[in-house]
Structures are given as structure tokens and as C-alpha cells.
Amino acid sequence: QVQLVESGGGLVQPGGSLRLSCAASGLTFSRYAMSWYRQAPGKERELVATISSGISSTDYADSVKGRFTISRDNAKNTVYLQMNSLKPEDTAVYYCNVRRYGLDYWGKGTLVTVSS
User: Fold this and answer.
1) What's residue 9's pLDDT?
2) What is the pLDDT of residue 56?
3) CA 95/CA 36 separation, integer angstroms
């Protein structure tokens, strides 16, 4: 059974940084692309960043390019999201995602609040 567990959220001031982690189990982690999504209050869930399997190419939403970095450690079955220069509009619940055999798997999410 695929399980994704996010951690690392919290309250941070504008301009600050956080690193989110997502520990995966129940799958051969290195074979799958991994993604981070977020959902702000009253808004739809949106894709933030994706990292491929293999060469670990990355892709980002325009709103986070140059501020966020997605990475993975296949030895630890973990994907990370380094978030710098955080803005109040980055406030959201952040979710880890993997698509395996056409099915989407999600973690329970971790809340990031950017506020002074």
C-alpha cells in the first residue's frame, strides 16, 4: 500500500524559508516522478513542482520559480521542497503526490502559514 507522509510545515514570516519532506513507502520510489501540490483556503489544489525519476529533471509553477526547489533522495525514499523568500500568498496546505499505474496517491498534507 502506497503511503506518503509530509512534514516540515509551520508558521514563518514573509521572506523566510521552510523545507518540506515527504517520506514514501509501498512503492519502488526511484521509478516514479514525485510532485508537490498546494491548496490555499477557498482555492483549488494547484501543482507546485515535479521531479522526474531517472535524471531528476524538475518543473515548477510560474508563481514559485526561482524561490522553491524540489529534490529527492532515492536512498531515503524522500522528496523535499525547499521554499525560500516565502510570501503570504504561499500560505496553503502542501501535499505530496505520486501517480502509480494511473492512480493518484496523496499524503495528508502539511500546513504552511506565511504571516508576520
Assistant:
1) 97
2) 87
3) 6
